[in-house]
Write a structure and sequence with these properties.
CATH superfamily: P-loop containing nucleotide triphosphate hydrolases
Structural class: alpha/beta
Order of helices and strands: HEHEHHHEHEHHEH
CATH topology: Rossmann fold
Largest sheet: 5 strands, parallel
Shape: globular
Strand order of the largest sheet: 2-3-1-4-5
Radius of gyration: 16 Å
CATH class: Alpha Beta
Number of helices: 9
Number of strands: 5
């Protein structure tokens, strides 16, 4: 009898999408460990493309030093590379950036990949409440860049209104569970299992 890990060999790419503080970087490694597959963070891959010596810069530092346009261009290139590589490698979990899927080129590449490899990519949207994301950002105290100029915590609702309709339209599964990383991971695990079962039956 096949295990879920065995079946995931037929799903090379599991994408985690969501706004900043939705839990992608926390849940991603947990889900990957549960599935016994590698985890990759698109922000890290993007930073590596923009690497100029020394340590890798954070997203906020790259926004300041290179500008958002350069960051988004590198992000799309890194995303495209991961899509291509996923057709030749084993299963992986890839956490997207908070704004990746708002880029027209990233959307185009995603849709094209899905059209060609519909059974081999599962996009899971982490969709906690605005209040939950605000609380996480407040507790985090990191150096994330403001996208609107009004402050990272204050802008959450506006960014959610701007992006979530697009993200929900692209998702194969939407996870609103946010009580704990373990609970969210379990919900994602179930979503991958359902995705595989649905495609195996089609």
């Amino acid at each position: 009898m096949q295990t879920l890990t065995d079946r995931c060999s037929n799903t090379p790419l599991i994408l985690l999408a969501g706004l900043r503080a939705s839990g992608k970087s926390t849940v991603g490694p947990l889900l990957a460990a549960e599935l016994a597959v590698p985890f990759h963070d698109l922000d890290h891959s993007t930073a590596a493309l923009l690497h100029e010596g020394g340590g890798l810069l954070s997203v906020a530092e790259l926004f300041k030093s290179r500008g958002e346009l350069a960051f988004r261009d590198a992000e799309c290139k890194a995303f495209s590379r991961m899509l291509i590589e996923s057709t030749h490698t084993g299963a992986i979990v890839l956490a997207l950036g908070g704004g990746t899927l708002m880029q027209a080129e990233a959307q185009r590449r995603l849709i094209a990949h899905r059209a060609e490899f519909s059974h081999s990519m599962c996009l899971i949207l982490l969709d906690p409440s605005v209040e939950t994301m605000r609380a996480r950002l407040k507790a985090d105290g990191g150096d994330r860049p403001s996208l609107t100029g009004v402050g990272v915590i204050e802008e959450v609702a506006a960014i959610a209104a701007q992006r979530l309709t697009v993200y929900r339209s692209l998702a194969d599964a939407i996870i609103t569970e946010s009580n704990s990383p373990a609970a969210t991971t379990a919900a994602c695990f179930s979503a991958v299992r359902a995705f595989r079962a649905n495609h195996a039956a089609s």
